[in-house]
Amino acid sequence: MQQSGLAVERLLSVYDLGMEKDQAEDQFWMAPDDVRVCGAVRLQGSKSVAQRALLNAFLADGQSIISGIPDCEDLEVFIRALSQLGGSFEGHPPGDVTVTGCGAKWAEGSIDLDLGANGTAMRFLTAVCVLRPGKTRINGETHRPMGPLVESLEHLGAKITYLGEKGYLPIELEGAPIAGGKVVLQAALSSQFTSALMLLAPHTPHGLQIRMVGPISSRPYMDLTAAVLRAFGVQVKAGAREIQVASSVGLRSGKISIEADASAAAFPLCAAAITGGEVSVEGVGTSSLQGDRMIAELLSEMGCTVEISENRVSVSGHARKPLARSLEGVPDLVPPLAIVAAFCRGESIFSGVSHLRVKESDRLEVLCQGMQKLGIRAEVQGDLFRIVGSDGSHLKPADLDPAGDHRMAMAFALLSLKVSQTRVLQPACVRKSDPEFFTRMEKLMMPHENTSGELSFE
Asked: Is residue 332 flagged as an active site residue?
């Protein structure tokens, strides 16, 4: 563990908030040699649940107290935008935040929202801001598709103008009456389009009947939206291709606790699976609303010993079996599972992954390039992601560029655990969702010790 102190020292400089951006980009993270990942962790609240809860609390009458909001860039961006729109927020994540809803009393005048890299905020706020009198300009990362959502909103009567390339931000919305009713949505690119319409629906006179056509991506996130809406008193009926959300006069307010982030839980659990360690995550289990709780089932299929209860998942032992599964509903699990698959002998095939191309980066391309750089056989064929796993003995270290994508940096950190001297560039990009990712990972690292009866060869 001699290198661990160096890694911690390096991280302290990366996360110095006073540091200039170009300095931060020169930093890297590298795991110590020959470690196992062991221990227990409790992760911060789910970013996905928190943003849905915050938006509903903002649109409700009265005050809501929300505990467990994660302290990360995405939530800073989201809360700042809701404040601009007329919401009142007291307290700071990860402590309790008191939200005084606007109750449809929006801030007046023209408003410019800069949502940065927060794709969820882009889609959700585009939908609900069609209700706001006056003009709202929304800007953010320009590669995230918006077309299917905008088309559905225009069908409902929204007035939306593209200020740049059609189908992408920036856009300008002008307040218009939205009655609700039936709407058809192309649902292949992002579940956030459907969730955005669902969050708009209670605030229309007739609610919405959303008919999804074509492939449906990330369905568990729509079910999560439905669960949060129901908690605020909204009636939701969710079928295979049709979701009905009733009009609701005044959303319920109250006290809400955000459950632990199942997407973030996947990384320490997968770290245990590739190093033969043992990790328990508190706050994620059978009672979790998030689809990514499925990580326990998938690691069990890959040969790990898995124990799961209502609020806890434990994983131990090496994953040794390749995996052939559709991961269309759990896109955030693809990066960590791909790394686990790289160290399971045989071919793993993940289907339903094409929508990973339009996340913070083209995750399929970035992930494949990083894995191939080390010597891992990985390729994308249409909607399939293929990984040929091995014991990893032939792999060579490299510097891995996550393209500014937090999930890619986290996945590449798992590779660094297994391939000595592999460096993760731009580690500060994890601030988007989980600023403590690397420091937490280091606390779980311990020297690998040979068990009785095993030999070690230099």
From this structure: yes
What's 259's DSSP letter?
Answer: P
Task: Mention every residue, 6+ apart, whose C-beta is less than 8 A from residue 367.
Answer: 334, 335, 338, 378, 408, 411
Q: Which CATH class is domain 47-247?
A: alpha beta
**Catalytic: which of 74, 332, 401, 405?**
332
Q: Do domains 2-43+261-447 and 47-247 have the same CATH topology?
A: yes
Residue pair 300/271 in contact (Cβ under 8 Å)? The answer is no
CA distances to 84, 85, 291 from 146, in Å:
22, 21, 24
Q: Starting from the edge strand earliest in sequence, which strands make up the sheet with 111-114, in order?
A: 111-114, 135-139, 171-174, 159-162
Exposure string over 157-192, b if 16+ CB within 10 A, otherwise e = ebebeeeeeeebbbbbbbbbebebeebebbbbbbbb
Q: Which residue ranges make up each domain of the chain? A: 2-43+261-447, 47-247
Model pTM above 0.85:
yes
pLDDT digits (tens, 9 = 90+) for 130-186: 999 999 999 999 899 999 999 999 999 999 999 999 999 999 999 889 999 999 999
* Beta-carbon contacts of residue 104 (< 8 Å; ≥ 6 apart): 59, 131, 203
Alpha-carbon radius of gyration of the chain: 22
Burial of 430 (0-12, 13-18, 19+ CB in 10 A): buried
pLDDT digits (tens, 9 = 90+) for 236-274: 999 999 999 999 988 999 999 999 999 999 999 999 999
Choose which CATH entry (3.20.20.120, 3.40.50.620, 3.40.50.1110, 3.65.10.10) describes domain 2-43+261-447: 3.65.10.10
